[in-house]
């Protein structure tokens, strides 16, 4: 089975530009999560979806960040305008509800550098 | 506030030793707890998931235990190998939400 697929793997762009990160969850998974990892703050949940509906976006740092999930196989995280402090590794993860709690499966991440 | 803590931040041991990584959490009414491994520049790999009703889970040389009453979990690695070198993260889910709350991780180095 293919795992969670994220693109691009690396992104370097200048401050003020729009950045779009993409994620394809594992087929059949009904939860999708976006995380950000930095040295200072570790791994933080930004937003998560259930059946394509945003459930909790309390971790989204500010209005410059937005996330969408137009269908069960695709999600985007957009930053507009980008700032140097947005530099981090962004992970997407998915899981299946199941009868009991199921493990989250992570993509390899997008390493974002804002100059 | 629901928080997860991992101490120490880094650990270095000689190859072949058995070792224990620690994880503590506030609010013992957890839903489940998950241990991950992260290699440099890579994503997270799920190692073990313990449900709140379970006391331990085992996979190969790894054994994770859960003591909800004390708010602690341990990851035991037997006969450590250099390939075990990585950062190990503990993450907790509490009822009412599917989101994971992560500890800061323990960076493990196994010296040949």
Describe the protein's architecture and organization:
The complex is a heterodimer of chains A (115) and B (112). Chain A has strands at 5-7, 10-13, 19-24, 31-38, 42-50, 53-56, 65-71, 74-79, 88-95, 105-106, 110-114. With 115 residues, chain A is mainly β. In chain A, the strands form two sheets. In chain A, strands 2, 4, 5, 6, 9, 10 and 11 form a seven-stranded mixed β-sheet that branches. Chain A has a four-stranded antiparallel β-sheet with strand order 1-3-8-7, with no helix packed on it. The relative contact order of chain A is 0.33. Chain B is mainly β and 112 residues long. Chain B is built from no helices and eleven strands. In chain B, the strands form two sheets. In chain B, strands 2, 4, 5, 9, 10 and 11 form a six-stranded mixed β-sheet that branches. Chain B has a five-stranded antiparallel β-sheet with strand order 1-3-8-7-6, with no helix packed on it. Chain B has strands at 4-5, 10-14, 19-25, 32-38, 44-51, 56-59, 62-67, 72-77, 86-93, 101-102, 106-111. The chains are: A mainly beta (115), B mainly beta (112). The interface between A and B is medium-sized, with 26 and 24 residues.
Give the SSE layout.
The complex is a heterodimer of chains A (115) and B (112).
Chain A: E1 5-7, E2 10-13, E3 19-24, E4 31-38, E5 42-50, E6 53-56, E7 65-71, E8 74-79, E9 88-95, E10 105-106, E11 110-114
Parallel strand pairs in A: 2-11
Antiparallel strand pairs in A: 1-3, 3-8, 4-5, 4-9, 5-6, 7-8, 9-10, 9-11
Chain B: E1 4-5, E2 10-14, E3 19-25, E4 32-38, E5 44-51, E6 56-59, E7 62-67, E8 72-77, E9 86-93, E10 101-102, E11 106-111
Give the gist of this structure.
Chain A is mainly beta. Chain A is 0% helix and 54% strand. In chain B, 38% of the residues are buried.
| Intertermini distance of chain B | 41 Å
Order of helices and strands of chain B: EEEEEEEEEEE
Oligomer designation: heterodimer
Overall average residue pLDDT of chain A:
93
């Amino acid at each position: 089975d293919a795992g969670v697929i994220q693109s691009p793997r690396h992104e370097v762009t200048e401050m003020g530009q729009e950045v779009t990160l993409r994620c394809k969850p594992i087929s059949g998974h009904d939860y999708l999560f976006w995380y950000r990892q930095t040295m200072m703050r570790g791994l933080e949940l930004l937003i998560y979806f259930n059946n394509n509906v945003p459930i909790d976006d309390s971790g989204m740092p500010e209005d410059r960040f937005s996330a969408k999930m137009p269908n069960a196989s695709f999600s985007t995280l957009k930053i507009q305008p980008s700032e140097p402090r947005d530099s981090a590794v962004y992970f997407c993860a998915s899981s299946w509800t199941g009868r009991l709690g199921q493990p989250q499966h992570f993509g390899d991440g997008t390493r974002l550098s804002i100059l | 506030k629901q928080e997860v803590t991992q101490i120490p931040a880094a650990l270095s041991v000689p190859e072949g030793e058995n070792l224990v990584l620690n994880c503590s959490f506030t609010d013992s009414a957890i839903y489940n707890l998950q241990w991950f491994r992260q290699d440099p520049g890579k994503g997270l790999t799920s190692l073990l998931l313990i449900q709140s009703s379970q006391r331990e889970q085992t996979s190969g040389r790894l054994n994770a235990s859960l003591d909800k009453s004390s708010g602690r979990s341990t990851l035991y690695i037997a006969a450590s190998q250099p390939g075990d070198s990585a950062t190990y993260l503990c993450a907790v889910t509490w009822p009412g939400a599917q989101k994971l709350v992560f500890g800061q991780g323990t960076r493990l180095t196994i010296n040949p």
